[in-house]
Amino acid sequence: MTNIKIQNSKSKFEYYIKKFKIENSHFPRFNEECGVFGISGSEDAAPLTALGLHALQHRGQEGCGIVSYDGNSYHSERKFGLVGDNFTKKQSLKKLVGNIAIGHNRYSTTGGETIRNIQPFYADLYGGAIAIAHNGNLTNALLLRETMVREGAIFQTTSDTETIVQLVAKSKKRHIEDKIIDSLMQIQGGYALTIIANGTLIGARDPLGIRPLVIGKFEDAYILASETCALDIIGATFVREVENGEVVIIREGKIKTRRPFPNNNKRPCVFEYIYFSRPDSILNGKTAYEYRKNLGTYLAKESDINPDVVVPVPDSGVPAALGFSQETNIPFELGLIRNHYVGRTFIEPTQQIRSLGVKLKLNPNISSIKNKIVVLVDDSLVRGTTSFKIIKMLYDFGAKEVHMRIASPEIKFPDFYGVDTPTQEELLAANKSLDEMCEYIGAKSLKFLSIDNLYKALGHSKRNENNPQFTDHYFTGEYPVRPIDYLNDNKIKKLSSLSLASNH
User: Is residue 21 part of a domain?
Assistant: First the structure.
């Protein structure tokens, strides 16, 4: 695939991302779109899927769903909210009979917060029904959608996942597996799919392997999941990653592989290593935790200060801060305490209450920071608004100096492959110099991990400029898959006339 490098902050895709991505100005950092899970060959397929989704809850909190298949009929439950609030009740799981099931945690980047956009999707097709769950974003979904609507297709959702369903439906191929592969050959972007079709569990990963998908084994059952932590929760064995561009077909206890795409070098999303994946999940042979400690180690190698304490921004900054501390022999302290029970559903405080400085999520641990030179470590810096609040808080509670260190390079470009990112004009590093950023967040000094050391921390001698080992456009502006929907003047239009507020 061809890299496209976008450098101008006022370029066309800026306008398009504003139009087609969910408003996200209230989110301080990146958010992964979804988690997927599938299992074939277990009488407890639905309960095991619910457990798998529970382990993947960090990948999406807006909604969750499970579809099962009993050999004759499909059974579906889709709900707003968390897995634990919806699939711990016997009455919900009793409905989901069968030995095959797929599940989905949703975080919306395309489409809106409405029940009709919660996956897995189900559709009756000629040649058999299909259920599908998708993690990622398609970069040509709007173009394909427009073409199919013009030809008479009827869309029920505003999700790009339905584009895949429609392509499968209109395929002229005879067998369902071939129909699915035919549809995959027409889409672009980053994606990981789990599908039930005619008693078969199918998994697919995009040609560059941008979005993650792994294979596990539980007794006689095979599992597909976004991360290995979803295998651990049920005691399943990790078999391997689904390869980039691979289609995995699981039926009657056997697994086969098809590779319809030309060979491409694997380019997983670098933020799976930096932030998205759960720390205990395995990525390319190591846990995400190990990689993140390495990021902190290399960050320390670039540091030129001698602080009293190393303080992480919890929870994502903890592994990097540990690596920093161990490399420098500077004490690690929990200088910030996080309230883990404040979620997105917490009541929004009034302006009057907000003005009192009520700290809902983080509070300083005074004994660890008072009268001390603090190096504050975080995994990334997006808008800078959260960092500003934290640094001010540390100073207010007695820190002598606060130096900010970021365990990744400057984020200057948004994402189009399934990650909820701000527009480029909202990204701090895209619009300010290092000194300006430092002044904006109120730190004594600010430094980011270099690209070279990012790649070293992740196990490479250097970045391969011709064939980068990761999808790293956040830092470089090099987009390995062309964002067609965001570069075409004809794509600005309302996706659906049905209000997103409608609970349909």
Answer: no
Query: Is there a single domain that holds both residue 208 and residue 69?
Result: yes
241-261 b/e with 16+ CB inside 10 Å = b?
bbebbbbbbbbeeeeeebeeb
Residues 238 and 335 in one domain: no
Same domain, 52 and 196: yes
Name residues whose C-beta falls within 8 Å of residue 214's C-beta, 6 or more positions apart in sequence: 224, 225, 226, 227, 228, 231, 238, 239, 240, 241, 242, 282
Contact 268, 212 (CB under 8 A): yes
Rounded CA-CA distance 57/71 in Å is 29
CATH number for the domain that contains residue 395: 3.40.50.2020
Pairing mode, strands 34-40 and 100-106? antiparallel
Burial 341-360 (b: 16+ CB within 10 A, else e): eeeeeeeeeeeeeeeeeeee
In this structure, what are the phi and psi dihedrals at residue 311, rounded to the nearest 5 degrees?
-120, 125
Find the domain containing 134 and state its range: 33-261
Rg, C-alpha atoms of the chain? 23
Residue 256 has which token pair?
Answer: 């086969």
The tens digit of pLDDT for each residue in 1-48 reads: 445 554 443 444 343 333 333 333 333 455 556 999 999 999 999 999
Note whether residue 229 is domain-resident: yes
Catalytic annotation present for 34: yes
CATH for 116: 3.60.20.10
**Exposure on the CB side of residue 317, measured as CA atoms within 13 A:** 30
- One DSSP character per residue, 418-484 reads SEE---GGG-HHHHS-HHHHHHHHT-SEEEE--HHHHHHHTT-SS--SSS-SSB-HHHH-EESS--G
Query: What is the Cα–Cα distance from 27 to 31, expressed in whole angstroms?
Result: 8
**Distance separating alpha carbons of residues 209 and 189, to the nearest angstrom:** 10
Question: How many domains does the chain contain in total?
Answer: 2
Helices and strands, counts by H and E, the chain: 18, 25
DSSP secondary structure string for all residues of 123-156: E--TTS-EEEEEEEEESSHHHHHHHHHHTT----
- What are the pLDDT digits (tens) for 381-439? 999 999 999 999 999 999 999 999 999 999 999 998 988 777 899 999 999 999 999 99
Tell me which of 261, 278, 301 is where a domain ends.
261
Peptide bond preceding 315: is omega within 30 degrees of 0, i.e. cis?
yes
Please check whether residues 47 and 176 belong to one and the same domain. yes
Planar angle of CA 96, 33, 85, nearest 5 degrees:
40
Residue 220 belongs to a domain: yes
Q: Is residue 389 in some structural domain?
A: yes
Amino acid at position 24, single letter: N
